[in-house]
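Help needed: design a sequence for this.
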């Protein structure tokens, strides 16, 4: 169910907040094989649920999230509750304060049932966590959930929660959203505070929601977006109203279809589903145009240099490989090989490509692409085949999403169908910086048309 559907049940007294939390926790525990949570906070959640029930009885309503169960990726500081980062490095870390976004959602009435599992340190795309268990995809438990926000996506895809928080450094919201068939929004860099969130790469990290539908992402943005004086990267821009207007069509929306990069080396079934969605956008009145985009191969290369450098700067002082999974340890060591001038040049390239994309947004409102060129790989697949060519699973998963972290543009992944074998296909919508309301509106219109 969606946030509004659950809210109606609570306000109609057909369900209490306490009953809702109890059912939610029981449902998650009944499918513990998915390993979606690292830490349950059932006792605290029930205490908050009783308070939310008392408030509703007294006529106090905090808004759409009043009494709504949620969960936070285990990178977000939670006061008095263990925050592991999915790592042994932080296995005993108990923060003394809440992350800003955790605090804001709590003030809005949301109730966290626990801390979601993830790829170790948010440094990977599979969420095959060697310390806290492999996160399994509820659409097919022989497949990965995607990462690094795998647990958050699974909680939604399995129907346990309407919304959960995630982070995105190289696609970590959008990849699991695509693989699990849910909606995930990476906002503009600086739109949402990162204060109290364990970092991976300061210049690439984004915080955003994963949800059951586009509107739930919009409702979450109403609560978590906005400047935070505790976060130096937090943008001092006006916070728009993210509430979506009544459903209409896409007349007047200029939609760009990339001629290069985004449809190269994409699974045929995914390309067909995305093209079908593009055709639906045209039927809804959108003005389509094909155009060449800047060199995203170079963008991805620069983004990887920045991520490797910044992540290694955080963890290079750890000398014991036993604290890390093999893949994460290898990436940290790889980052030590990046020269200083390579990092500086990658930052310089970022400025140039941002200018190129600023020019692009004068021609179009939304850029439409696949989210991932593949569907969710099997747990055992370290490489995948697209056509006849093999490709590393991590590289394939991040290829179409990583560059948007480097540029800072908002990007949303939404389901746009399934393959004949039943696996979800993700559609990515990208727009100009700080244009999330228009992006969400276009996505919601398409979502309704595809339903």
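Sure. Designed sequence:
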């Amino acid at each position: 169910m969606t946030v509004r559907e659950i809210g109606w049940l609570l306000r109609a007294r057909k369900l209490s907040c306490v009953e809702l939390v109890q059912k939610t926790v029981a449902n998650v525990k009944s499918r513990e094989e998915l390993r979606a949570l690292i830490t349950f906070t059932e006792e605290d959640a029930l205490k908050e649920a009783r308070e939310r029930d008392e408030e509703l009885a007294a006529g106090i309503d905090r808004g759409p999230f009043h009494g709504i169960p949620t969960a936070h990726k285990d990178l977000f500081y939670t006061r008095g509750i263990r925050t592991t980062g999915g790592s042994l490095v932080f296995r005993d870390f108990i923060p003394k304060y809440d992350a800003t976004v955790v605090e804001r959602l709590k003030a809005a009435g949301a109730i966290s049932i626990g801390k979601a599992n993830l790829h170790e340190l948010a440094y990977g795309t599979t969420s095959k966590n060697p310390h806290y268990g492999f996160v399994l995809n509820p659409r097919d438990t022989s497949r990965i959930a995607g990462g690094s926000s795998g647990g958050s996506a699974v909680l939604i895809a399995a129907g346990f929660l309407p919304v959960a928080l995630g982070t995105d450094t190289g696609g970590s919201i959008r990849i699991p959203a695509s693989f699990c068939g849910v909606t995930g929004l990476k906002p503009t860099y600086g739109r949402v505070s990162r204060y109290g969130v364990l970092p991976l790469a300061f210049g690439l990290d984004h915080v955003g929601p994963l949800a059951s539908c586009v509107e739930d992402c919009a409702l979450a943005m109403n609560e978590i977006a906005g400047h935070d004086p505790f976060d130096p990267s937090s943008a001092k821009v006006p916070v728009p109203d993210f509430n979506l207007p009544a459903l209409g069509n896409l007349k007047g929306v200029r939609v760009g279809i990339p001629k290069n990069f985004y449809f190269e080396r994409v699974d045929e079934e995914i390309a067909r589903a995305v093209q079908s969605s593009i055709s639906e956008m045209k039927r809804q009145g959108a003005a389509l145009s094909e155009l060449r985009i800047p060199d995203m191969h170079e963008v991805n290369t620069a983004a990887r240099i920045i991520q490797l450098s910044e992540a290694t700067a955080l963890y290079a002082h750890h000398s014991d490989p036993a604290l890390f999974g093999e893949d994460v340890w290898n990436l940290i060591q790889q980052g030590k090989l990046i020269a200083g001038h390579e990092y500086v040049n990658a930052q310089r390239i970022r400025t140039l490509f941002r200018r190129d994309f600023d020019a692009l947004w004068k021609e179009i409102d939304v850029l439409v692409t696949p989210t991932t060129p593949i569907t969710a790989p099997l747990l055992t697949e370290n490489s995948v085949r697209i056509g006849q060519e093999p490709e590393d699973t991590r590289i394939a998963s991040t290829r179409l999403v990583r560059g948007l972290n480097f540029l800072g543009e908002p990007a949303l992944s939404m389901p746009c169908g399934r393959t004949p074998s039943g696996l979800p296909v993700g559609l990515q919508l990208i727009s100009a910086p700080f244009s999330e309301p228009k992006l969400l509106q276009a996505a919601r219109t398409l979502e309704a048309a595809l339903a």
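The chain has 14 helices and 15 strands.
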